[in-house]
Specification:
binds magnesium ion, binds adenosine-5'-triphosphate, single chain, about 10% strand, globular, alpha/beta, 11 helices
Length: about 240
Amino acid sequence: MTRESIVDGVNQGITSIHGLIAQGRGEAFDYLIGEKSTESALKAEKVAAAKLLLARKPVISVNGNSAALVPDELIRLSELINAPLEVNLFHRTEERVNKIIRHLRNRGARNIFLKSDARIPGIEHDRAKVDSHGIFAADVVLVPLEDGDRCKALLDMGKTVIAIDLNPLSRTARYADITIVDNITRALPNISGFAEELKCLGQEELQDIARGYDNRQTLSLAIDEIKKNMESFVDLSKP
Ligand code: ATP
Ligand code: MG
């Protein structure tokens, strides 16, 4: 079903053809982590929810894969934590940006940053375009499936970056402040669930949850999980 959503996204002009390659890489890593939200991913998701609730100007970046796979979950989280959506494409065309905005609006999104009047410094032309009141001004950005160079450029701007990336070895995974090594299809509902649970807490209690979080440990636990699964695959010679 997930694969069909991505293919539909490509056919509708929402997802770039390159999105198929990213999906394939994601599927391979999902297989290796056991196609489940691991304990360390759940911890990162909880810390991410706390950070998003603590943020002054949180923004959720939307690309062609996430718009095809989880449009409703993106809108739900956006409403829950009061973080507008912003379409932010690696292979950017105005036509595709507008198609994604229409797709999100048709599904009920009300809060979307629409302008492309600012640039992320250090990134080449079209890939750098952002809204001056959106990602450009945000203190915390949630980037599902971001490219490594742009992730680094957002960090260089002083932002807190929360990435969702099934590949714990990618540059994005290693650069981000919080890396959620989980499929976006599971990660977004999990973050929303935590946000609902934590919403009633005060600033200090939220800070307690986020304090001491160690992203290197999250990545190392994800790699341990992969190793463990690979060993069990070898033990079982037949499925
Ligand atoms: P980097 O630029 O960070 O080194 P990359 O060039 O290998 O990584 P990109 O194509 O820039 O990867 O980004 C796509 C990333 O998204 C991949 O790491 C892939 O594992 C991940 N990915 C793809 N589909 C999903 C999904 N459904 N959920 C979570 N992550 C996914
Ligand atoms: Mg890349």
